[in-house]
């Protein structure tokens, strides 16, 4: 009850505050000088498509994202959602912001191998993540799900509780974009770089405490209902299915008219399924009905003209090279070539075509209170904040010279034989200065992954009074959605 009251109060405050913000922002938009800030390195916030592309030649992008731990039950909901195709015949793509606690690593491997994006959402989903949460998540995803470090390029703050110091850490750790900030209508821009700080979700136009040249911000545009109330994550929980489907369609069409700014649907997969053994709350909609409504909405959206469901990284790739919609079928970053390996290896794919993925090859790691599967060998203990990559295991981790879809972690072999599939991870090694734990291939044994003393908190900058004001919208928004996030 208290939570509900706080939610309503916060929502009212948020609308009021953001209404003020939007007026101020339009006055400050000139702070980003488009003659000095030039793509592909620098993008000013804008509601107009990049590259001067006319609206009729601009695709309508759809960002479908999922947050928190990846588990078998939650993946079921996503599988139903993502069986649709983009205009080039490839399955639609989505981004998963993964928190490590309770995650089954083998499912992350499968999600990535199917062409989707894996992004960093901390180890333990705290309110106020220090750098060890951000670094540990990247390391664990690399070690036990086989995601190349250079492909973990995105970040979302738990509870959307972004803070200027968070951007400092992600920039240091080679992360290319944040997607934690909220937007309403006139500040729902195309992604932009923080060369001039944040544009949306601030109390005063650009947040001058968040200047990070080259670091992208992908604003989370809210769904506005028929009463003008914004809904951000899991909008299907805020009304009856038929009514919510109407808002979703109206908002999608609004984006299509307003510069074709990317439309987003931001979900917690856990809320797509009823928790086994837990009865529905009085008045709550049956999750199956919500899921069906979302499927209908996605089916409708994918059929709209020039609509593409893309990962966040694919969206940024397109912004750097904004080819017209009628040429997108040949746009290489949107292709979906699947490795043809001919024998089953533990890479998250059904390599032998018998309908099963990695059959007989994943290892089941049982730590009594936590059980998960992996292709990359069970460590001696469950990954933790203090030790995100514990030693142990008899498999070979993905080296920096091979993408994991081509990597056989049992034979210690990269099966990519030509330039088309060649991959070299040139990303900045993750970790603190002097922390030499980035995987360079080879057996788990003998590497210095997971030394117990690594990843000590390294003096993330403290919040100063001058930037405290910029935090408040994040906190307010977070309080609305906390009740939906576990
Ligand atoms: Zn979360």
UniProtKB/TrEMBL annotation:
SUPFAM superfamilies assigned to the protein according to its UniProt record, in alphabetical order: Glycoside hydrolase/deacetylase
Signal peptide segment: 1-29
PANTHER family, per database record: CHITIN DEACETYLASE-LIKE 4, PTHR45985
Any single biological process term in GO: carbohydrate metabolic process
Organism: Rhizophagus irregularis
Keywords: Signal
CDD domains (UniProt xref): CE4_CDA_like
Protein name according to UniProt: NodB homology domain-containing protein
Region (Disordered): 434-463
Record flagged with keyword Signal: yes
């Amino acid at each position: 009850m208290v939570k509900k009251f706080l939610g309503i109060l916060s929502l009212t405050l948020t609308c009021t505050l953001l209404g003020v913000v939007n007026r101020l922002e339009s006055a400050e938009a000139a702070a980003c000088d488009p003659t000095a800030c030039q793509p592909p390195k620098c993008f000013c916030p804008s509601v107009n498509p990049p590259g001067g592309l006319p609206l009729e030649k601009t695709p309508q992008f759809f960002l479908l994202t999922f947050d928190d731990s990846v588990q078998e039950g939650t993946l079921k909901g996503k599988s139903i959602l993502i069986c649709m195709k983009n205009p080039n015949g490839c399955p639609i793509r989505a981004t998963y912001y993964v928190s490590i606690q309770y995650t089954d690593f083998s499912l992350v491997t499968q999600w990535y191998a199917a062409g989707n994006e894996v992004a960093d959402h901390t180890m333990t989903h705290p309110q106020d993540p220090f750098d060890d949460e951000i670094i540990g998540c990247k390391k664990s995803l690399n070690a036990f799900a086989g995601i190349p470090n250079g492909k973990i390029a995105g970040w979302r703050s738990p509870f959307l509780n972004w803070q200027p110091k968070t951007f400092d850490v992600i920039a240091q750790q080679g992360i290319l974009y944040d997607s934690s900030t909220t937007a309403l209508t006139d500040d729902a821009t195309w992604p932009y770089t923080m060369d001039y700080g944040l544009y949306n979700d601030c109390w005063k136009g650009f947040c001058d405490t968040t200047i990070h040249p080259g670091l992208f911000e992908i604003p989370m545009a809210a769904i506005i209902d028929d009463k003008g109330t914004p809904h951000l994550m899991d909008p299907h929980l805020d009304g009856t299915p038929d009514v919510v489907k109407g808002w979703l369609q109206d908002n999608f069409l609004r984006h299509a008219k307003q510069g074709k700014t990317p439309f987003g649907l931001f979900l917690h997969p856990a809320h797509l399924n009823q928790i086994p053994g837990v009865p529905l709350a009085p008045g709550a909609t049956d999750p199956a009905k919500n899921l069906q409504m979302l499927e209908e909405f996605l089916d409708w959206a994918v059929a709209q003209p020039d609509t593409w469901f893309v990962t966040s990284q694919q969206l940024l790739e397109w912004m750097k090279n904004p080819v017209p919609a009628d040429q997108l079928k040949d746009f290489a970053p949107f292709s979906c070539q699947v490795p043809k390996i001919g024998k089953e290896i533990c890479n998250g794919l059904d390599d032998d075509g018998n309908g099963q993925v990695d059959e007989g090859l994943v290892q089941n790691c049982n730590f009594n209170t936590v059980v998960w599967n992996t292709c990359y060998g069970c460590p001696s203990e469950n990954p933790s904040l203090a030790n995100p990559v514990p030693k142990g295991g008899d498999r070979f981790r993905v080296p920096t010279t091979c993408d994991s879809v081509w990597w056989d972690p049992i034979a210690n072999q990269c099966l990519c034989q030509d330039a088309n599939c060649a991959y070299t991870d040139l990303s900045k090694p993750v970790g603190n200065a002097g922390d030499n734990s980035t995987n360079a291939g080879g057996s788990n044994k003998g590497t210095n992954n997971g030394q117990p003393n690594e990843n000590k908190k390294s003096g993330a900058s403290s919040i100063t009074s001058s930037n405290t004001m910029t935090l408040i919208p994040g906190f307010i928004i977070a309080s609305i959605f906390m009740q939906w996030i576990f």
